[in-house]
């Protein structure tokens, strides 16, 4: 049977003018809903002097106030709920380790939209009813497992609800069940590829064809490493708990950015310092508005993710605007010796120079000076080298990183298997300065 090209073709290929019209209609209703049911929003809008009747279409969205994580913390746990609690059927929560967790609520309708978005992502990655989908994102409060699980049910694929961890069992199930699509974080996918290699199983002996990886920033170099290691095509997927979970946007076969599910979410990019809306093609902070969620409909939510929006005709036929790979979160950006550093820049250099994807960045302070260390694991075949040749490699890598960032780190090439592997979101940065500040 021929595979579907789209999960919901009417929505996914809707002409741009129709998308705008739909967004306008939905926004007008959403603002009325929120103003009437969430006193906190009413207060924010009243303070800004904007009434629901001022919002006549999507072009008026800039009149609405922004909300950010601090609003969610201030209203924890029920303050932004826009329906009766009795109408909610699920919560999910962020993986945040500091401060109060964010709790997102869902009605049946909200779960339905969310799983549709994930189903769109799966079909865009070539998945259909005949496929076997192993969901190796964490299940539970984290949205990754439940989101892809329900999306895979909607597509009608056989779903293997593995959750993360127990890597040996992951490999066994993949090959015993002829799994064709793997869903997990890119760092875990790289670990799974490494584990197959260690068992002497080559990419052509692995049943997988596609992978849907997200929940953390990853570079195109990392994509190629995973694609080669597992013999698959690797698709990006983006989302956040506050807006629903995975599937806010997803990649198609063109792999040139992620289509935002614009019939449900309106995206803007703003200057993080001034709040000014930036034109398409300019990097800035992503802001999302939930157009038709019922229980927890955030309006103009500041994600802190830095990225670029591009509307271009896509070879896949989808008309939804694309977001380029986020380069990181504005709060993940390190300032080292006065220079802005994103961990993804370092990842790009390491993989281009043929080092492994297992690395950790450590920043500390001696007196008033920042100390910048990068630990990079050698591949087993690189480890036989002599001390002299390792010192030469460290020097060369220092130079490559300096060329990218303008500052020189201390590079430490360490033995294979010395850096802890990630089964979920990888911890790439240890910033010890935060402990002293
Ligand atoms: O990570 C939802 C998700 C699950 C997305 C599975 C994709 C796959 P949170 O735990 O709330 O939700 O974290 C959201 O993770 O604001 C980004 O900073 C980051 N993030 C998510 N997807 C990507 C991606 C889930 N594809 C935060 N690329 C977001 C880069 C991503 N960063």
Count of distinct structural domains: 2
CATH topology-level name of the largest domain: Rossmann fold
Q: How widely separated are the two ends?
A: 61 Å
Sheet with the most strands? 9 strands, mixed
- The helix content is 25-40%
- E-strand count: 21
Query: From the 3D coordinates, which CATH architecture of the largest domain would you assign?
Result: 3-Layer(aba) Sandwich
Report the structural category.
alpha/beta
Distinct small-molecule ligands in the complex: 5'-O-[hydroxy(phenylacetyl)phosphoryl]adenosine
State the main characteristics.
single chain; 437 residues; alpha/beta; Rossmann fold; GMP Synthetase, Chain A, domain 3; nine-stranded mixed β-sheet; four-stranded antiparallel β-sheet; 21 strands; globular; binds 5'-O-[hydroxy(phenylacetyl)phosphoryl]adenosine
Please, could you describe this protein's structure?
The strands form five sheets. The chain has a nine-stranded mixed beta sheet with strand order 4-3-5-6-7-8-9-14-13. It has a four-stranded antiparallel beta sheet with strand order 10-11-12-15. Strands 20-19-18-21 form a four-stranded mixed beta sheet. β5 (181-184), α8 and β6 (210-214) form a beta-alpha-beta unit. The protein has two domains: 1-327, Rossmann fold, CATH 3.40.50.12780; 334-435, GMP Synthetase, Chain A, domain 3, CATH 3.30.300. It has 437 residues and is of the alpha/beta class. The chain has helices at 9-12, 16-37, 39-48, 69-74, 108-124, 144-155, 167-176, 186-198, 220-230, 343-352, 387-405, 433-436; strands at 88-93, 103-107, 132-135, 158-160, 181-184, 210-214, 233-240, 245-251, 258-260, 265-270, 284-290, 301-307, 309-310, 322-323, 328-329, 334-336, 339-341, 359-366, 369-377, 410-414, 429-431. The chain contains twelve helices and 21 strands. α2 crosses α3. It is globular, with a radius of gyration of 22 Å. The structure holds 5'-O-[hydroxy(phenylacetyl)phosphoryl]adenosine (DLL). 5'-O-[hydroxy(phenylacetyl)phosphoryl]adenosine binds at residues 94-95, 137, 143-144, 214-217, 236-241, 245-246, 303, 305, 326, 329.
